[in-house]
Amino acid sequence: MSQEQWECLERNEAEQRMGFWKEAGSLPECGSSPDQSDFTYSRKDTTEITVSALTASIQYALWKMETPRKGCELGQKQLDALKAGMFLRKVKSRLWKRQRHYKLQDDCKTVAYKSSWAINTYSTFAISDVEAVREGHQSEALLGVADEFPADRCFTLVFRGRKGNLDLVAESADDARVWIQGIRGLMQNMENIDESTRLDQWISDWFSKADQNKDGRINFKEAKKLLKMMNIDMNEEHACCLFMMADKSESGTLEDQEFVEFYKMLTERREVLDLFQDYSSNGEILSQCDLEEFLREEQLEGERSYEHALQLIDHYEPSDTARMNHSMSIDGFLMYLTSSEGSIFNQERQGIFQDMKQPLAHYYISSSHNTYLMEDQLKGSSSVEAYIQALKRGCRCVEVDCWNGAHGEPVVYHGHTLTSKILLKDVIATIANYAFKASEYPLIISIENHCNIEQQKVMALHFNEILGDLLLTDSTDAEVSGQLPSPESLKKKILLKGKKIRNETGTLTDEVSDEDEAAEMNKDSQSTDDKKSKQNLCKELSDLMFCKSVHFHSFEHSQISAKANEMSSFSESKARKYSKEAGSDFVRHNCRQLTRVYPSGMRTDSSNYCAVDMWNMGCQIVALNFQTAGMEMDLNDGLFAQNGSSGYVLKPKILLNRERLFDPEKPEERENYNPLLFSVRVISGQQLPKVRQKDWSIVDPLVRVEIYGVPLDQAKQETNYIDNNGFNPNWNESLQFTIHTPELALVRFVVEDYDTASRNDFIGQYTLPFSCIQPGYRHVPLLSRDGTSIRPSSIFVHIKMTEL
């Protein structure tokens, strides 16, 4: 297709969109380019929408992105190739390589695939679930077949969350290029889509789903199925009434404009409209003064309310006329409330806002346990991909368990188990490549060393040669000054933590194995294996250690003799024991020393413990199994979502004061004790996902608010459930909590599908630090079990905090 044809297509699409959104007098002049026009969106005059508009915009965006590249003929031809589909080899290992037919669906947002033996059954994945496309042999599976398939035919789709990657081999380099560039182009278009186009897309999606016979119109039978798909259980009489109200042509079907009217009736946000009218002087618009009053009274913005009101009108109000009059329509008000500014998470705390020049021991550090594992601790696979995923999530302390390998090459795996083995040098190379992509602050590598002298020397060689200048080994300043350097001073540096040689007797010997979970599991039968692990320690490797692993004797011993760069490791049970028996001493210890906590060795299923108890003590390196989703990882993700998701969070002052020690068991004895009353009014939910994909299945949602922190703050309360409505449930219920130590509290919002006969099903959750919560009317964006966004699903709440 020529450039002129594409520009014509773009103009047609723009006309379709403006026909749907247009407001009198706001159309661009004839001949102007649609992307240069200042579109005005209003729902006052809804005239037309077509399903092809989104496809056209994606096609044009892909063509526009790829055209400048010489030697590439892309655009419609490429999309046609993707939609026609082709056979690609899915690769899991050298022995597992299967042909699958992959094709892009007509919505340009979904890829369908099926096995060669399947007749009509296709599985699908969404383009929006793809996080990255890697070219060539950039996975263990593809590296394993590198001698069979050249790099230019290979690529990997990396999915968001914990979903495994998809390794593919095309029949030719050209075919691979079609898929690589095509998927990337579609991903970029989706990322760049604006809110108005997103709404167009949302409506188009529902129209397409409802129009099952693809005749461009929807009959009442299709409308009833649509309600089920939208998670709405509506009696037939009411559904018929809405259908007839929208059917202006009285044809018994809904065409484009009529469907938009039907959709508007279903999605009307009555609770937002009521709030809007409460503050509107005339019931139709919010003047600048009206909006300023809302921001001051409800959102508690104080003196900045006047200036912020103008900014919000300028940024979110879709009507030119309203903007010129410094006023906001209901559309603009809703756009503000559903934006990041209307989110419960304070935007000012999303970037780096904390002092990063304090000693390392003053920070919580996002930490992974047995980082190499993708699954359980007994027979799960080890993979460099696990390191990539952890580092991309902001993890700043990873673990490497090193054992003697074949051909003199150390390997990484969970010793004495059936977990698979990977080469240490591959792990180090992966760490070097991904260490600072998500955060520029220092990365700690915790080494569990079970190798003999010869392979320890190989370890030292790999660390030196692969990490090079990234590696910081000189800890003299920390030993002399008595405190560790700051994250700011250690940017783009990698620190190794492990055993160092004690040269007190003039010998170069020490125990190689750390006080780790292997030792914990073998307490009763460790005599033979543990004796074997007491070997000489290689000086070359010892000299690379910045943090020295030491056995913990007592808090008194540490206070008198411990050096700042020495670190002790505690199992979760030992850490809990010390927190109960000597909480204040534990807090004092963690003011100066780094403490690492790891899961019990009995957690062979890679389950996690609750890290909050350890954070209450000021423990910095609380290692979790990143591969295992659940409440424990939700709390970890919530804590480290602040401060730029850098993996470093400054501990509150109460945990850094050595003179007046804090005891989490007795928060009322702290200095400046000011408990808060935390009130949450759970108002409504929006477009909750279906738990089961059966046509008849509709969720009965409830919301639970959970508080995690010091023992006195631990609490849970939940709303009643709403029968058969996951699309726009309305609770309007108030929950109240007393927060004794706000600095340490985390708040988790959980939405579940109520079940009378069995355990409730998980729908979504969102966790954040109490200190990052914005008061007022806020939307809480929901995340999946894997921690990925399930937009546009959210809950609407009102937050109030009052001093007691």
From TrEMBL:
It is an enzyme of class 3 (hydrolase). It holds the Pfam family PI-PLC-X. Residues 507-533 are annotated as: Disordered. Its EC number is 3.1.4.11. Residues 544-655 form the PI-PLC Y-box domain. Residues 520-533 have a biased composition (Basic and acidic residues). The keyword Membrane applies. This is Phosphoinositide phospholipase C. It comes from Danionella cerebrum.
